[in-house]
Specification:
13% strand, 3-stranded antiparallel beta sheet, globular, 323 residues, 3 domains, alpha+beta
Length: 323
């Protein structure tokens, strides 16, 4: 993206942030969606927002639809996406599906180019998106990119009751979010948008779902440790994402200091933190579900991408383009 485009976007977004925002929950109507790259979206519902589209190709999505339900963003946070461009799809096609780090980097590159987040009075980047909200946002960008169904991803599963073959079409609404238990939600603070947990022996513990920025720094730290041949403390890595409230200022040195601090915890404090991170984990369930087309019985199947992660943005079947 050119410097001129960046300046235009920043100016437009500053103007957008100064407007009073009183729209009710919803998504974008078909009429307002005008992507600049690969087509016109057709799966959005209007939010009765009469603000003009200030950024060509960008469209607002709502954090209440994310797996996190928007719990860990400021109340007035706003999210805008656009369709992936040819340049971004070409880059995505170079992904090494055997390397988890390569997959992470490729997905984050899509977000870096196609997602804008705005908090009034604060500089933001795609790194402020919560890690577990990434799949929903990626799939929504994908729907804007392939609006004519030219890159459909389907999974087939026979009904256990009647044997009928059902096909799951994977999209942004295919994933059921996990529900946070009341035992952790009772500590959710509306004002600070985080969990503030009072404990008997470990004081007050503040937690939020980890952001992409936090996970990127942790991934960098893990790779560094592996390259240096050092053994990773898996028990520490499990709780680490929840020990950091903001990715800003996080680096390998700070992570090492946190590891030293964690080693000095009492057994009860570690067990408390370990249990709290399990309860506070947001995300999506591992299985998709639908009703059998023939008998109506619920059919479930594990989430998978038959064509691999590349199939999210790379069309594997080009027969439709052949004459």
């Amino acid at each position: 993206m050119s410097e001129e485009t960046n300046n235009f976007e920043d100016a437009a977004m500053r103007d957008l942030e100064n407007r009073e925002f009183t729209a009710s929950k919803g998504e974008i109507s078909e009429e307002t969606v005008k992507p600049t790259s690969l087509g016109k979206a057709s799966s959005y519902v209007d939010r009765d927002n009469d603000e003009p589209a200030l950024l060509p190709g960008y469209h607002e999505i709502w954090s209440t639809n994310f797996p996190s339900k928007g719990l860990f963003y400021p109340e007035n946070a706003r999210f805008f996406i656009r369709a992936a461009s040819v340049k971004e799809i070409r880059h995505f096609s170079t992904i090494n599906e055997q390397d988890p780090f390569s997959i992470d980097e490729a997905l984050n590159e899509i977000l870096k180019g196609c997602l804008m987040i705005r908090y009034p009075g604060k500089q933001t980047t795609f790194k402020d998106l919560r890690e577990e909200d990434r799949i929903y946002v990626i799939m929504t960008i994908r729907e804007l990119t392939f609006v004519n169904g030219e890159n459909k991803i389907g999974v087939k599963k026979n009904c256990d009751e009647c044997g009928h073959e059902n096909e799951f079409t994977i999209g942004k609404d295919s994933f059921d979010p996990t529900i946070l238990p009341d035992t952790i939600m009772r500590y959710y603070d509306e004002e600070t948008r985080k969990f503030v947990i009072q404990t008997k022996s470990s004081g007050t513990i503040e937690m939020v779902a980890p952001s992409i920025g936090v996970m990127m720094e942790i991934s960098k730290y893990i790779r560094q440790q592996q390259q240096e041949g050092r053994k990773l403390d898996q028990s520490f890595l499990k709780v680490l994402p929840y020990l950091v409230l903001d990715w800003r200022g996080l680096n390998s040195e700070k992570i090492k200091n946190l590891e030293v601090e964690c080693m000095q915890w009492s057994d009860i404090k570690y067990q408390t933190m370990n249990k709290l991170t399990e309860m506070a984990r947001v995300g999506v369930k591992e299985k998709m579900r639908t009703e059998c087309e023939k008998c109506g019985t619920e059919v479930t199947t594990p989430i998978s991408f038959p064509g691999g992660i590349k199939s999210l943005f790379v069309i594997s079947d080009i027969t439709g383009e052949l004459l």
